[in-house]
From TrEMBL:
Residues 36-55 bind DNA. It comes from Desulfocicer vacuolatum DSM 3385. InterPro entries: Homeodomain-like_sf, HTH-type_Tx_Regulator, HTH_TetR, Tet_transcr_reg_TetR-rel_C_sf. SUPFAM superfamilies: Homeodomain-like (SSF46689), Tetracyclin repressor-like, C-terminal domain (SSF48498). This is Transcriptional regulator, TetR family. The lineage of its organism: Bacteria, Pseudomonadati, Thermodesulfobacteriota, Desulfobacteria, Desulfobacterales. Keywords: DNA-binding. The keyword DNA-binding applies. Residues 13-73 form the HTH tetR-type domain.
């Protein structure tokens, strides 16, 4: 009997994962407000009733998507917690993770960007959750930068880094075939190497 329940629970978890993945993709491409439960269901070949069996509302799906986005920052946060030889090596390593993640799941990056843009003017619980996800990354990045030198600007550097790379991701999608994500990230890193605070 326990084996049957485990299989059933595994199917439930897998189905919830498919719904979250579909919603992440659709929120990235259409935005939250333009995505319907029917869109999500059709995207994965389910009925709307089946989606509602797993999530009570579109808002519940959004919460699950944001939670999933939060988990997707773990690799960055674990990397930042390590000891690094110097800032340049650390930042290049972060960019390498970003490029790898872009190749494996660009929807995660674009969905986070899209949700932040869509909800930023609606100061409510959703944007607070999205900002909390960003803040986990920013806090970890700022702490890592502080290991090299404690400067007030480190938080702004961390925020600018994530904002810049998300912009690079959008441009990579717009310029597919013109330039690779690797070339765009290299351009971003080179631009940042030229700019020095206060100059």
């Amino acid at each position: 009997m326990n084996h049957i329940l485990n299989k059933k629970e595994a199917r439930r978890i897998a189905t919830r994962g498919k719904i979250i993945d579909a919603a992440t993709h659709l929120f990235a491409t259409l935005g939250f407000h333009k995505t319907t439960i029917q869109d999500i269901a059709q995207h994965i070949g389910m009925t709307t009733g089946a989606v509602f069996h797993h999530f009570g509302s579109k808002k519940d799906i959004l919460d699950a998507v944001v939670e999933n986005l939060d988990h997707n920052f773990e690799e960055y946060i674990e990397f930042l917690a390590r000891d690094h030889r110097d800032r340049r090596t650390m930042i290049t390593g972060m960019a390498d993770i970003f490029v790898k993640r872009f190749h494996t799941d660009p929807d995660i990056i674009i969905s986070m960007t899209s949700l932040a843009a869509e909800f930023s003017s609606i100061r409510g619980p959703v944007i607070l959750k999205v900002q909390a996800v960003y803040d986990r990354f920013v806090d970890a990045f700022e702490a890592a930068l502080n290991k090299f030198s404690q400067e007030k600007i480190n938080r702004a550097i961390a925020i600018g880094f994530i904002a810049g790379l998300q912009g690079v991701a959008v441009q990579a999608l717009l310029r597919e075939g013109e330039m690779s994500i690797e070339e765009l990230v290299q351009g971003f890193l080179s631009m940042n190497a030229l700019a020095k605070p206060g100059e």
